Request: fold
Amino acid sequence: MKKRRGLLVIIVMLIGFMAYHSGVFSEKIAYMKDDHAKLENVKSIDITKDAIYQGDLLLVNRDYPIQPESVKKDVISLIEHPEIVQGYGLLDTNILLSQEIAENFSDVVQAAETDGIHHFMINSGYRDFEEQQALYARKGSSYALPAGYSEHNIGVSLDVGSTQGKMETASEGKWLRENAWKYGFILRYPEDKTAITNIQYEPWHIRYVGMPHSAIMHDQGFVLEEYIDYLRAEGRVSVRLYGIQYTIQYYPVTEPMEMKVPVNHDYQISGNNVDGVIVTIAQKD
Ligand SMILES: [Zn+2]
Reply:
């Protein structure tokens, strides 16, 4: 009897191990072939060229500067919001950030906390053009971008440090590299992509893009430049993650147009800051 029970335990463990590694229980992303989201109720909305320059997927770099309408409208001073700033420090009292992004960052900090990682601090957030220009003048082009060419000027990016040391080696840095994508953030300037980003490795600079984009980018090893190209080339991408089916569709926008969006499902529209918009529809099981 004892022997059989032992065997049973081994079998159950083996099944569990196989299920985990086949992605049944893990956070593994599944790409869907039959990608037509079945939308019974749709409505039409008007899209104008302005939409190219708003949202969480804007590609901002030396080739694609930001437009005035790209700046997040909910930028707040973090020191004035102790209800949001919990579990991490601020380098100084002047740090600004989009409130939505700050709330999403709180999820990151909370999740890290449960893994025993709790020495984060925010060193920089939203910077207006004036501040960016001063930084560029002071630090030079290998460290900073000129005003209007930095993600910090929109409010979606933040520089995260560790009170325990450099992010390259601190456990906060390691944790972010492995887990930030689960909360919609990407490491914008990874070590192996400097030839594409034209920016040195910055283990501290994270950028919010939202789900499922951060998951796909992590899964495929894309930086934002590559991801924007990928969506344009694919046209439509469908994935399933954490019980939600996401349909991502790229639309070029050259003139005002009408677009069909679901009435009964969440959707988000973001420009790519280049030539079109990306619509992301989320259908829960
Ligand atoms: Zn930065």
